């Protein structure tokens, strides 16, 4: 088991490097000259050259890449020229907002998608059809429109909950909850649609397996069949979809934060791309890539915990 | 809804990008959906915007379908290192959150009507590539393919004349799904201000403007959203119907991967 984990971790390193190369490449592919942008409109060629030199942009591309990596290793992520603060500080402010949003949405996903997908045990049942309708509905409605409607009705018309802004849980838990409800529902329903579709499909497959038929033939109750025989194999697709969710959720928060005016990581990335805030874009992309890779790694390891065949297959 | 988008521009009462009335009117007899903040007729803008959405959806499905189908057929048929390279590239593209990847592509290639399309094609062609590869792997060892090879058919002929027709049902289903998610992607990009540049009417950017006036003109944001949701919903249902008619199973995973 330990070997399996070590192997998985090691195999994630090249992928992470490729990710670093890509974020570095984006930095250089973005049109415009960072030094000229940082220097501002009135900068003389000499000033621009000085900035270039300071940033190391006058060196070879490989040297630049190595330098960037070594600075990353020291957690020095560079400076955002738009806000004149270090990217590390910015991230420390912004990431909690986004992580909190993703966290509360995942709770919503768990309490909606899991029970709904259980309908697949009896295809065509009322619960099963409800699950289908649920997922098609939220897949069709763009998240930002749902967010817009919610803020229109719940906040503006009925004045029940605030439509924008962020309050930290540490600061005031009740206010924080009130501010989280609408954004979390918006993101959560969308993610729930995806998870419901996927889990339903997976459970349909599992319920047709021979060992389920055997369990039923033994005379076990449906409850026991589900809990004892279907639950464990169903964990595998469940983990898979959780892995996929991370990427989708990060993309989703970009939109949700725009609708509800939350200054989180997504907003930071969008405004950085639009304003050509080079270092922020570069680091932001790297963080996204790393998050996806680490999640996949975790999912892989958990697979092996649940299903021994996976870890034996590796060095069988 | 498609009919709506196709004939829309002919029945639209006003030019979509010209101010014809005071701004932010509610629905009236002359302007059934009201007007936007610049006094442009909203019904006309929704009609034109729907057409843009359909163009992007269809365009992406066709272009990404073309690239992805051949990439998938080729890698599934040839195996070996080309297969490895193609799969790696596709896995990497799919690993990225689609919206963020698309945003970066738009930032690199500059804003125009075509960049959202380009971005959608890059983001979504792997959805075809992987599914088609899986289908090609199954088909390549079937007897009719072996027979065709025994008859001396060239690899190219086998690929195009023998394998391609057999994977077409999968291509159709996947095409409908990709069209749905491409519509959503374009709307999202435009909502963030990096999609179709103004003054071209896009449902996403219209919704973005509407967001600023929820208080003053509550119904502003409702109509474009309905159009968008109906269009995407229709495509999703169409994909589901195709899937059960052609009795192919394209895993629902692909829908999940393609969202925001």
Keyword list:
heterodimer, A: 316 residues, mainly alpha, MetI-like fold, two-stranded antiparallel sheet, 2 strands, B: 260 residues, 72% helix, disordered C terminus
Determine and state the CATH class of the largest domain in chain A: Mainly Alpha
| Largest Cβ-defined interface | A-B, 54 and 46 residues
Strand order of the largest sheet of chain A: 1-2
Distance between the termini of chain A: 12 Å
- Estimate the helix proportion of chain B, in percent: over 70%
Poorly predicted regions of chain B are: 251-260
Strand content of chain B: under 5%
- The CATH level-2 architecture of the largest domain in chain A is identified as Orthogonal Bundle
Number of helices of chain B: 10
What's the story with the biggest beta sheet of chain A?
Answer: 2 strands, antiparallel
One letter per element, helices H and strands E, the order of chain B comes to: HHHHHHHHHH
Helix fraction of chain A, binned, reads over 70%
Q: Biggest β-sheet of chain B: count, sense, barrel?
A: none
Q: Roughly what is the average pLDDT of chain A, rounded to an integer?
A: 79
Give the overall average pLDDT of chain B.
75
Quaternary structure classification: heterodimer
| Rg over C-alpha atoms of chain A, rounded to the nearest angstrom | 24 Å
Provide the β-strand percentage band of chain A. Answer: under 5%
- Evaluate the radius of gyration of chain B: 21 Å
Question: What's the total helix number of chain A?
Answer: 13
How would you characterize this protein structure?
The complex is a heterodimer of chains A (316) and B (260). Chain A is mostly helical and 316 residues long. Chain A has two domains: 31-76, no CATH class; 87-313, Orthogonal Bundle (MetI-like fold). Chain A contains 13 helices and two strands; from the N terminus they run H-H-H-H-E-E-H-H-H-H-H-H-H-H-H. In chain A, helix 8 (173-207) packs across helix 10 (222-260), helix 9 (210-217) crosses helix 10 (222-260) and helix 10 packs across helix 11 (265-275). Chain B has 260 residues and is mainly α. Chain B has ten helices and no strands. Chain B has helices at residues 2-11, 42-78, 80-95, 98-109, 114-139, 143-150, 155-192, 203-211, 222-245, 253-258. In chain B, helix 2 (42-78) packs parallel to helix 5 and helix 8 (203-211) packs antiparallel against helix 9 (222-245). Mean pLDDT of chain B is 75; it is low at 251-260. The chains are: A mainly alpha (316), B mainly alpha (260).
């Amino acid at each position: 088991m330990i070997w399996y984990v070590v192997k998985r971790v090691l195999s994630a390193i090249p992928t992470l490097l490729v990710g670093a190369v890509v974020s570095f490449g984006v930095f250089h592919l973005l049109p415009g000259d960072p030094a000229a942008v940082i220097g501002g409109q009135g900068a003389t060629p000499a000033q621009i050259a000085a900035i270039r030199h300071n940033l190391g942009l006058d060196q070879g591309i490989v040297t630049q890449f190595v330098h960037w990596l070594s600075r990353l290793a020291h957690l020095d992520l560079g400076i955002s020229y738009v806000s004149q603060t270090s990217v590390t500080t910015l991230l420390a402010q912004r990431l909690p907002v986004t992580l909190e949003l993703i966290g509360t949405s995942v709770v919503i996903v768990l309490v909606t998608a899991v029970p709904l997908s259980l309908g697949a045990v009896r295809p065509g049942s009322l619960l099963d059809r409800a699950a289908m309708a649920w997922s098609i509905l939220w897949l069709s409605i763009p998240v930002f429109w749902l967010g817009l409607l919610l803020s229109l009705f719940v906040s503006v018309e009925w004045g029940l909950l605030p439509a924008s802004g962020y309050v930290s849980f540490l600061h005031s838990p009740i206010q924080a909850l009130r501010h989280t409800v609408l954004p979390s529902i918006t993101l959560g329903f969308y993610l729930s649609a995806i998870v419901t579709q996927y889990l339903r499909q997976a459970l349909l497959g599992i319920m047709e397996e021979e060992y389920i038929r055997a369990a039923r033939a033994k005379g076990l109750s449906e409850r026991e069949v589900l809990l004892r025989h279907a639950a464990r194999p169903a964990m595998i697709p469940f983990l898979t979809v959780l892995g996929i969710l991370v990427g989708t959720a990060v993309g989703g928060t970009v939109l949700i934060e725009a609708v509800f005016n939350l200054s989180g990581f997504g907003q930071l990335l969008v405004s950085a791309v639009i304003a050509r805030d080079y270092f922020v874009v570069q680091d932001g992309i790297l963080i996204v890539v790393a998050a996806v890779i680490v999640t996949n790694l975790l999912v892989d390891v958990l697979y092996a915990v649940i299903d021994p065949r996976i870890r034996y297959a590796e060095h069988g | 809804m498609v009919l709506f988008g196709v004939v829309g521009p002919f029945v639209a009462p006003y030019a979509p990008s010209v101010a014809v009335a005071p701004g932010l009117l509610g629905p009236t007899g002359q302007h059934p959906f009201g007007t936007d903040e610049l006094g442009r007729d909203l019904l006309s803008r929704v009609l034109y915007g729907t057409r843009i959405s359909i163009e992007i959806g269809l365009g992406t499905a066709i272009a990404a379908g073309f690239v992805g189908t051949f990439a998938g057929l080729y890698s599934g048929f040839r195996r070996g290192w080309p297969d490895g390279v193609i799969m790696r590239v596709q896995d990497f593209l799919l690993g990225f959150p689609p919206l963020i990847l698309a945003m970066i592509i738009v930032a690199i290639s500059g804003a125009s009507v075509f960049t959202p399309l380009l971005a959608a094609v890059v983001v979504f062609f792997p959805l075809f590539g992987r599914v088609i590869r899986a289908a090609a792997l199954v088909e390549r060892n079937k007897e009719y393919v072996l027979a065709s090879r025994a008859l001396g058919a060239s690899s190219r002929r086998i690929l195009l004349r023998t394998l391609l027709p057999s994977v077409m049902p999968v291509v159709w289903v996947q095409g409908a799904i990709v069209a749905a998610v491409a519509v959503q992607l374009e709307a999202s990009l435009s909502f963030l201000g990096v999609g179709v540049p103004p003054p071209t009417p896009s449902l996403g950017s219209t919704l973005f403007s509407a967001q600023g006036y929820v208080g003053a003109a509550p119904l502003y944001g409702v109509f474009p959203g309905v159009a968008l949701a109906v269009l995407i919903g229709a495509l999703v249902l169409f994909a589901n119907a195709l899937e059960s008619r052609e009795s192919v199973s394209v895993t629902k995973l692909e829908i999940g991967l393609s969202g925001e």
